[in-house]
Amino acid sequence: MVSSVSGSSSAQALYQAQSSTSSKLTDDQKTALEDILANYDVESMTEEEKKSMMDEMKSAGIPMTSETKELLDAAGFTPPEKPQGPPPEESTSTEEEIPEYLKDFIEKQQAGEVTQEDIDALVEKLQASGETVSGALVDTKA
Q1: Helical H runs in the chain?
Q2: Per-residue confidence band for 93, with pLDDT thresholds at 50, 70 and 90
Q3: Domain segments of the chain: what residues?
């Protein structure tokens, strides 16, 4: 069984459609692609070999079509999954880690009872704590 090549920028480049994706390969192009793929061992390819294979495909005039992708897939060259971005950071804070003065402020804010003096007092306590806080503290509607 041939394993897939994934995760490399070269493998990604194999699947970037720079040519028409709907045209069919000629018999000569199919044969050339099969010959090129036969020269490479999917399981032990280096980045240099991947680049070389792509260069050979380009030199042979093999366009990146859906049929080309199917042949590459059949040979074990599957497209890498597109990164979805970094996983969201998990919140590590718990109720116990939130200072009492902040809990009190949150309760007042949720009840709609926050005054300017409450906000000023909270800011002073936060500054006195020495911790840095970024972002919005309170949303207000005008």
Answers
A1: 9-14, 27-38, 47-59, 66-74, 100-111, 116-129
A2: low
A3: 9-74, 95-129
